[in-house]
Amino acid sequence: MAQRLSKDDWLQAGCLALTEAGPKALKAEPLARRLGTTKGSFYWHFDDVPTFQRALMEMWKNRAYEDIVTLLDQQDSPVLKLRQLAQIAGSGAPEEFGGLGLEPAIRAWARESEAVAQAVGDVDRKRMGYVQELFEAIGLTNPELTRLLYAAFVGMEELSTHDQADNSSALGTLVDLILALHEANG
């Protein structure tokens, strides 16, 4: 007897499909083929494809911001949080959710979908606000540093989709450089 698929199984398959084939793969038929099941299983969990796509974006928003902040908040200091954030950003999503290619795929989809663009914008604002709070906690108040560091996070993920390089060290070096410049001027 086949194992019953959960809503999370479908969302995970959606992340992989989006990463590998783009938003055109986010439909019941290709996802059912990917999972070796029928479309009926899809429609058991989701009313229609737009409902599935909204659920996919909600899951991504939670994983891309709330889950990361929860993990970072276990660190004792803003410096440790910034360093761990660089490690997380450099490694991307878990492989079973598309790995380093997931976020660039979502950003590409955002160029075609206003709803996705809004979700990406919301996550970007929250993430930059969080990084700005960490910088301010150590005395760095220039908002341009936040924008530069965040742009490096986003750009490194895009770069990794082409060369498959792990950018954790490079992003960690950038964080350490910003912190060292601050300490030298403090």
What is the number of E strands? 0
Low-confidence stretches: none
The H/E string reads HHHHHHHHH
Sheet-strand content, in percent, reads under 5%
Label the structural class. Answer: mainly alpha
The helix count comes to: 9
Rg over CA atoms, rounded to whole Å, is 18 Å
Helix content: over 70%
Major sheet attributes: none
Global outline: elongated
Fill in the keyword field for this structure:
186 residues; mainly alpha
Give an overview of the whole structure.
This protein has 186 residues and is mainly α. The protein has helices at residues 7-21, 28-35, 39-45, 49-72, 78-91, 102-110, 114-137, 143-163, 168-185. Helix 4 (49-72) runs parallel beside helix 7, helix 5 (78-91) runs antiparallel to helix 7 and helix 7 packs across helix 8 (143-163). The radius of gyration is 18 Å and the shape is elongated. The relative contact order is 0.11.
